[in-house]
Amino acid sequence: MTVTVRLPASLRALAGGRAAIDLRDAGTVADALDHLAEHHPALERRVRDERGVLRPHVNLFVGTENIRDLDGPATGLADGAELTILPAVSGG
Amino acid sequence: MSTLLAIGTRKGLFLATSDDRTSWQLSAAHFPMQAIYAVAIDTRAETPRLLAGADSNHWGPSVFHSDDLGATWQEPEQAPVAFPDDTDGALARVWQLQPGPADQPGTVWAGAEPASLFRSDDGGLSFELVRALWDHPHRPSWEPGAGGMCLHTIIPHGDRLVTAISAAGVYRSLDGGRTWNASNTGIEARFFPDRYPEFGQCVHKIAADAEDPDRLYLQNHGGVYRSEDGGSSWNPIHAGLPADFGFAMVAHPRRGDSAFLYPLVSDEQRVPPDGASRVFATTDGGNTWEARAGGLPSEHVYGTVLRDAMCADDADPTGLYFGNRNGEVWASADEGAHWQSVATHLPDVLVVRAATLA
Questions:
Q1: CA B142 to chain CA centroid, nearest Å
Q2: B62–A contact, CB cutoff 8 A
Q3: Residue B140: what are its φ and ψ, rounded to 5°?
Q4: How many Cβ atoms from other residues are within 10 Å of residue B235's Cβ?
Q5: Taking CA atoms, which of A22, B238, B254, B322 is between 20 and 30 Å from B314?
C-alpha cells in the first residue's frame, strides 16, 4: 500500500523541496509520522514534539477530515490515502 | 573592525552592522514570524558563530547556527535541544544561549522552558540535558512567571554555574552541574507572605562583575541586589534608583564595579519611570547610580525593556544597546552617555547581543 503525505510550503525545504512524500506500509497516521521521524527527523519534529505529541497549532487531515475528529494518531490510512499537514489558524 | 548587533524579536531576527557604531545597516528579517528569545555571537573561534533559538508558533522551537554571519543558517538533522525519552519533557522554548569561557571553546549552555539547563560541547550543534538540575527535588514546586517556566540566565565560572529560573530564583552548582542548591539568601519575594523563602523568587537577570567573579549583580522582580560571594548571599543595592523593578542587568565587560540596568516603575506598572527612557549606571558596585540618557526620549515613553533586551559589546569604549517592546533599538558608543536610534517599528524586541568583528 502507498499513502501520500502532503506538505505545506513552509516545510518543503525540510524534504528536499518536495511538496509530497509517498510512503509504503503506513497503516495509521502514527505509522506515517514514525516513518518521517526515521527518514526526515527535522521535518517530523515540526509536527510532533519529542514525546510524540502533535503540536497544538498543527492540523493533520486524512482526506478532508481532521484527525482530531477521527481517531487521532491511530486513524487508519487506506491504500492511496492522502495525509495533509497544515498550520492551524492561530497567531497574532 | 565592524560591530554586529543581533536583534531577536517576536517576529524574526534582525542583524544590524556598523563600522562606527553610529550609523547602522539593518537586515531584513531572518526567521520571519518566529520568536527569537535567545541569540549568541560566539567569537571564541576564528570564525564567529551565530546561534539563534527560534520558536515557531506552529512548528515548534529549535536552535539554528550560522558560520557566515547570517548569510546562511543550518539546523542539525537531529533536534539540537530535546528532552530525553525518560523525562516526559518537551522543549517549549530556548530562552538563553550562553557560550562558555574562553578556555572551554566548544561549550555552550542553553536555558530552556520548561525550566532546564542543557550543555553542548560541540559549539551549539547538539545539547544534553543537565540531569541533576532537572531532577532537583524542588522542581515539582516551581511556579512559572508570566513569561513561562523558564531558565533564562547562565553564568559559568570554572566549576561554578549560577542560573536563574522564573519564578524559582537562583540555583547554583559548584561542581560543574553535578549537584545544585537554591541560592536565594537575602532576595525578597514580595508576592509571598513569607518574603524570604528558600526558593520561589522571581529573579529576572544576573550579571557577573568583569574583575571580581564572586561579585554578581541581580535585577529581581522588585529589588536590585549584589552578591560578594558568588551567589551564596545577596544584599540590596537599589538605593538611588528611581524604581527597583526591571528586567535587564548588564555588567561592564572589562571594568569592575560597573553595571547597567533599565528601571521600570513597578510590578504593576511595567513602564519607565517619569515617562523617560533612561539607562542607569553604577561605577561603584551599586552603591550609587546615575542616569545615562543623552539622546533618549524624555517624555511619553512606555516601552518595556525585557530581560535580555539590553547588552554591551566588547569594544573600547564599551558600546551599550537596548531594545523595547515597541520595536525601538538604541545604541550608545560611549557607555550610555549618548544614544542613537538603530531601528524603529520592529516587532517586540526580546533579545540583543553585540560583538566586534575583525
A1: 21
A2: yes
A3: -60, -20
A4: 12
A5: B238
Q: Is the pLDDT confidence value at B324 over 80?
A: yes
Going by the DSSP 8-state scheme, the letter that residue B14 receives in this structure is: E
Are the C-beta atoms of B96 and B153 separated by less than 8 Å?
A: yes
d(CA B305, CA B323): 6
Tell me which DSSP letter residue B62 carries. Answer: E
> Nearest by CB to A50, which of B59, B77, B91?
B91
Nearest to B59 among A50, A51, A55 (CB): A55
In the β-sheet with B279-282, what is the strand arrangement from edge to edge? B245-251, B259-264, B279-282, B290-292
CB-CB under 8 Å, A53 with B78: no
How crowded is residue B269: how many other Cβ atoms within 10 Å of its Cβ?
12
**Across B168-173, average pLDDT:** 98
Q: Are residues A5 and A23 in contact, defined by beta-carbon separation less than 8 angstroms? A: yes
pTM over 0.80: yes
Bridge partners (DSSP) of residue B171 are B163, B182
In this structure, are residues B54 and B36 in contact, taking their beta carbons and an 8 Å threshold?
Answer: yes
Cell, residue B31: 526567521
pLDDT band, very low/low/confident/very high, at A90 (cuts 50, 70, 90): confident
The angle at the Cα of B304, spanning B298 to B308, to the nearest 5 degrees, equals: 120
* B109 contacts B100 by C-beta, under 8 angstroms: yes
DSSP category for residue A36 = H
Question: What three-state secondary structure class fits A43?
Answer: helix
Task: Give the residue-averaged pLDDT of A70-90.
Answer: 96
Q: How far is B247 from B206, CA to CA, in rounded Å?
A: 10
- Length of chain A equals 92
Task: Report residue B67 as a C-alpha cell.
Answer: 558560520
- Nearest residue, CB atoms, B57 vs list A41, A49, A57: A57
Residues in chain A whose Cβ is within 8 Å of chain B: 10-11, 41-42, 45-47, 49-51, 53, 55, 57-58, 87-88, 90-91
Cell reading at B93: 522554548
C-alpha angle B145-B156-B306 in degrees, rounded to nearest 5: 35
CA-based Rg of chain A, rounded to a whole angstrom? 12
CA distances to B108, B204, B251 from B215, rounded to whole Å, are: 22, 17, 10
